[in-house]
Amino acid sequence: MCPNNPVLTHHISSQFNEELQDVNTKFMSMGGLVEQQVANAIHALLEMDATMSVDVQFKDNAVNQLEREIDEALTLILARRHPAAIDLRMVIAMSKANTDLERIGDEAAKIARIAQSLSEEGGSPRGYMETRHIGNQVRIMIHDALDAFARLDAEQALRVLHADADIDREYQSATRTLMTYMMEDPRQITRVINVLWVLRSLERVGDHARNISEQVIYMVKGFDARHTRIEEIEQKVQR
Amino acid sequence: MCPNNPVLTHHISSQFNEELQDVNTKFMSMGGLVEQQVANAIHALLEMDATMSVDVQFKDNAVNQLEREIDEALTLILARRHPAAIDLRMVIAMSKANTDLERIGDEAAKIARIAQSLSEEGGSPRGYMETRHIGNQVRIMIHDALDAFARLDAEQALRVLHADADIDREYQSATRTLMTYMMEDPRQITRVINVLWVLRSLERVGDHARNISEQVIYMVKGFDARHTRIEEIEQKVQR
């Protein structure tokens, strides 16, 4: 796992190295798992696959378990190793990003619950195209944010921030379309609102991928990129 | 601020004491601010007070600024002081709870934006009673969670977890009522959906207050209460 990550190879204590490697590996597995959970939840919704929607809800337990294990490992590293400089920033960034990964898992489970009830009701008359499109984009965002984390790539993290701005616009537009449709055919309100909740969840997933990317920038560049205009972040990253 | 907090008075280094005191004071101010932001956002919605809704959105900047300052102070404490045992748990709990406070601030700003657009449209025909009721409850939850944090009171934190379970039920019930209303009077869909988003935000605020309470239990009792059945937490807290 990430053999070129310079943070994970520079320690004098090989024990420290190993501990940081282990938690990093676990963090990356958790990232892979939640990425898959989002993909499966969207698949379950689009294909009305009730079995898969149950499976996603069940697997959220594994995500939760990983969150606990990662935080426990990070606490032990803080207590025993007193990391400094980029090591400390990596521990802090991983602790924050761990919360975001778990929340992405929660959103995937929510989408899967809605997929299950929609498949029992025979699906929604609208909103699948929007779900597929925004769903694909946020999956790519999660993937890119994790890749940026693994490779300590602040430029890639920056691209995720840009992608999140696109998602927000597309989410607004999809919401307006679905609201217009509900007014035209009020009998479908319940089912279409379910799709609105899914889109909202996907938009939240995009926000979490952005948060993870902000942590990558903090880890690599040492500055707090939260609540900062993207042009300002750009200048600092590319300096 | 919290003169009886035993964590903040037991250190041999008075410098360390002071740093932990300072960040704790800042954390409590941030808590007070976001509690007020939620109260004001609800007030702005219920009273159609456009000025207040603008004010809440503006003040979110102050919340964001506090989030950055608190995380920066916590990182310095980790780097310089190498806290252990309950000190370390307090730093970690504050770092996690800091994120939750900032997200509560985000939800308050979202509610304020909706309040602003609803007041321009002349308000919603329904949903104010539900908003007032759930809004009051989540405000109390934030207050109780912060109080539990300040007093290291795991039993009080446990009461917040119970309150969150109530909120989730009431949120489900309010959502069903509003959906039924929309089907009866589809011309009001846009405005009623705005109230649905507000209720959703309030439900999220309740989740964040629960997260903060879980961190209190972790800090005081040393076990990770996340993703755990409430009966099991109860047993461990009351042991």
TrEMBL record, chains A, B:
Gene Ontology CC: cytoplasm
Cited Pfam families: PhoU (PF01895)
Sorted UniProt keywords: Cytoplasm, Phosphate transport, Transport
Statement: the UniProt record of this protein carries the keyword Phosphoprotein: no
InterPro entries (UniProt xref): PhoU (IPR028366), PhoU-like_sf (IPR038078), PhoU_dom (IPR026022)
GO annotation terms (biological process): intracellular phosphate ion homeostasis; negative regulation of phosphate metabolic process; phosphate ion transport
Sequence ranges assigned to domain PhoU in this UniProt record: 28-114, 132-216
Leader sequence segment: none
Subcellular localization(s) per the UniProt record: Cytoplasm
Function per UniProt: Plays a role in the regulation of phosphate uptake.
NCBIfam families, sorted: phoU_full
Protein name (Swiss-Prot/TrEMBL): Phosphate-specific transport system accessory protein PhoU
Organism: Acinetobacter wanghuae
